[in-house]
Amino acid sequence: MPRRHDPERRQRIIDAAIRVVGAKGIAGLSHRSAAAEADVPLGSTTYHFKTLDELLVAALRQANEGFAKVIASRGGLEDPRADLAAELAGWMGEWLAGDRTGVELEYELYLAALRRPALRPVADEWAEQLADLLSRRTDPLTARALVAVVDGICLQVLLTGVPYDESYAREVLGRVVAGARE
């Protein structure tokens, strides 16, 4: 039987891996579970992704791309007249109010880098992308501090179940920005 050309198969496997991690966590992801979710033969997953870490890297990279699209859609972070703290707090509110499973998935993949060294460079891309964007509005050290605050607030919301408080986030972020001006 001739092989069927399926140019979207690799992407379907990545999408399936993201759905599996979203439903069962990283511990639930295997080549077999991704293949079943993508409705492809098991050999397809191992053909496109030799190791599970390769599949996780692709999933994390795709999650990072989703994050970048949210940032780009707001646009205000690059406007020098816009209140940087308010823009960041608004972005966080939009991100956390959206598909909660997607946000949780991004952080689960991001934190998986603690135990999976192959994920570390991709996890670092997330922080670097945001820091680079913020460095257009402030100095690099303040940009990194803002990234740390964003991470901290988002993780607190995700882990505690406490609703996101945009005014609190704006105040805390504003203090970091104001401290840079002193």
TrEMBL record:
DNA-binding region (UniProt annotation): 30-49
Lineage, uppermost ranks: Bacteria, Bacillati, Actinomycetota, Actinomycetes, Kitasatosporales
Domain HTH tetR-type, chain residue ranges per copy: 7-67
Keyword flag Glycoprotein: no
Keyword line: DNA-binding
Family matches, as InterPro entries: Homeodomain-like_sf (IPR009057), HTH-type_TetR-like_transc_reg (IPR050109), HTH_TetR (IPR001647), Tet_transcr_reg_TetR-rel_C_sf (IPR036271), TetR_C_31 (IPR041583)
Pfam assignment, any one: TetR_C_31
Record carries keyword DNA-binding: yes
Record protein name field: TetR family transcriptional regulator
SUPFAM superfamilies: Homeodomain-like, Tetracyclin repressor-like, C-terminal domain
